Amino acid sequence: ERGAQDGQGREHGISSECFPDGTLKLRGDWRHGLPEGEHQRYHATGKLSEATVYRDGKQVDGPVQTFDENGKLSTSYTMRDQSIEGEHLTYFPDGKVSSRSEVKQGKSNGLTTSYYPDGAVRSTMTEVNKLRTGEALEFYPDGKVKSRKQYGDKDVLLSVQRYSPRGVLVLERKWDQQLREQGTSRSWYESGKPEQSID
After folding, report:
1. pTM above the 0.70 mark?
2. What does the alpha-carbon distance between residue 129 and residue 132 come to, in Å, rounded to a whole number?
3. What is the pLDDT of residues 57-67, one digit of tens each?
4. CB-based contacts of 27: which residues, under 8 Å, 6+ apart?
5. What ranges make up the beta strands (E) of the chain?
6. Is the per-residue pLDDT at 4 higher than 90?
């Protein structure tokens, strides 16, 4: 680790940090304890992980990209007033989108969709201030529903249904808002024949 300080002991000037083998890990400029200009973070492979621009100690508004250890695009989003705002994307190594979500003031708000590598939808869910609400779905690669979950207030799971790859319902359970199981819990064999039923 290398750096300098001003007369009050605050970071001042170029500072850097390396991995044990000497590969650069962090590098950035400081002005009297506040980050200034571009700060870079690197993977142990030497590839850039993220470059963040600061002005007067605050991250500058605008688009941000992060990269994996092989230098491939990993995430992209936009910073506004020190928080992520708008669409947040993650990527597979080949550049295809692996997930897409809406963010407001740094928290997930709206629909989040994840994908299989071929672009088929893997799951969908809706969040309000990073808490799940409403229906959340998981899908098999062929598009058939794998699970169906219903959420109430404050991320409370109210019901779940699971399906076999052939589309047969194999599990069904329900809870109330206090997380107490309610009604009849049922499960089925993949043939569709009942396996268990508990009130």
Report:
1. yes
2. 8
3. 999 999 999 99
4. 14, 15, 16, 17, 39, 40, 42
5. 13-18, 24-31, 34-42, 48-55, 58-59, 62-67, 73-80, 83-84, 86-91, 97-104, 107-115, 121-128, 131-139, 145-151, 157-163, 169-175, 181-188, 194-198
6. yes
